[in-house]
Amino acid sequence: MKVIDGGITSPKGFKAAGIACGIKKHKRDLALIYSETEATCAIAYTQNKVKGAPLKVMIELDPKKLQAFIINSGNANTLTGDRGAKDARDMVSQTAASLGLERDLVGVVSTGIIGRFLPTDKIISGIKEITNELDSGRKKDVEAAQAILTTDTVIKEAACEVTLEDGTKVTIGGMAKGSGMISPAMKALHATTLSFITTDACLSPGFDGKWQDVMDSSFNQIDVDGDQSTNDMSVILANGCAGGMKADESEAFWEGVRYVAKLLAKQVALDGEGATKLISVVVRGARSTEDARKAAKAIVSSNLVKTAIFGSDPNYGRILCALGYSGAEMVPERVNLAMGANGTMIPIYEQGEPLIQTCGTGEEPLKELLKKKEIHIVVDIGLGNSLAEAWGCDLSYEYVKINAEYTT
């Protein structure tokens, strides 16, 4: 696998654009992804029972192939009744008409403030404009990535190249958004984080199981504030423009997809609202992968762990508390725990015995490490061989300020 400087249009045959259509003041708020040929797709949606109108439209459509995806930011089109559903369908219809496509080849999603009707006239006019802006290259990658942001402070992109077992070189690119209301639990065909991954590899329809596994090891393992959005969606589009073998069972290909998804997920976690630090949790020695994932997600989701990290406080009791209620099988007397940063890890709890005292002796070196930008927590449950990761951010005063002043 080769990491490259790229984004959503890095794979062959993909174009994108991002413009300002007037939903937000002076910022891009409408993005379009386009494939020159029909692309096999898989989509994961939020499990929140309250779903945005575009998600309901997409779940009803249940596409196996798409050629374009229209995305607006600044307005979630959620809890908007029959009009919301009509507005989402109108976005699809106008995009299809402007591109000369069948309606069932166009996807749609929205992100932003809940409970407000879309400014449909602005969006329809924007769709007519944006279809003339489509192109490939880094400039278009960035413009599209900017257009899907809400409270984000930076764009999120990733790309890599992989060589399949038959020698075919394929490219995988992606973009994502997310800063608040983030604790995804997305399920393929039935699952605010938005992520879009494109590839020029050939994939057969029906690879949802593989896509679900990618979700479960990446986006479903991040947490900012414990709130699962109404509009979470993750999409992969494979147009086959690279030729060569089917990549369905290619481990090299799925390694590349996992790399892109995990990098995007970590970028979302780091850009959490008000965040000052990235928290990376590794849980190993679990009975099962499911247990490892549950444990890692519980730790990174704990508000008490988050606030401790914000205060550079090595309060391992909060970590073990989260591990205990995670639902993962564990025996406290078998657990080992270490924390650190910058490649230095300090053991703080081993098989039932504390190695430092909370608010006591032995804390100072670890407190200094916890002032760094990326904090690592490693837990060995000591019951098996399974491993999982999760990523989150600290919880700061600024998070409260942002969400007190911003309408969700």
Count of alpha and pi helical runs: 11
- Count of DSSP strands: 17
Strand content: 25-35%
Kindly report the CATH topology of the largest domain.
L-amino peptidase D-ALA esterase/amidase
Averaged pLDDT: 94
How many domains make up the coordinates? 2
The largest sheet is:
10 strands, mixed
Blueprint of the fold:
Elements: E1 2-3, E2 14-19, E3 30-46, H1 53-61, E4 65-75, H2 81-99, E5 106-113, H3 120-130, H4 138-147, E6 156-163, E7 169-177, E8 186-188, E9 194-199, H5 208-216, E10 222-223, E11 233-238, H6 251-270, E12 278-286, H7 289-301, H8 303-310, H9 316-325, E13 336-341, E14 344-350, E15 353-354, H10 364-369, E16 374-380, E17 386-393, H11 397-405
Main attributes?
11 helices; L-amino peptidase D-ALA esterase/amidase; 408 residues; globular; seven-stranded mixed β-sheet; Ubiquitin-like (UB roll); ten-stranded mixed β-sheet; alpha+beta
Description:
The strands form 2 sheets. Strands 1, 2, 3, 4, 5, 6, 7, 8, 9 and 11 form a 10-stranded mixed sheet that branches. The chain starts with a strand and ends with a helix. It folds into 2 domains: 2-270, L-amino peptidase D-ALA esterase/amidase (4-Layer Sandwich), CATH 3.60.70.12; 278-405, ArgJ beta chain, C-terminal domain (Ubiquitin-like (UB roll), Roll). Helix 1 (53-61) crosses helix 2 (81-99). The chain is built from 11 helices and 17 strands. A hairpin with a 5-residue loop joins strand 6 (156-163) and strand 7 (169-177). The chain has 408 residues and is α+β, with helices and mostly antiparallel strands.
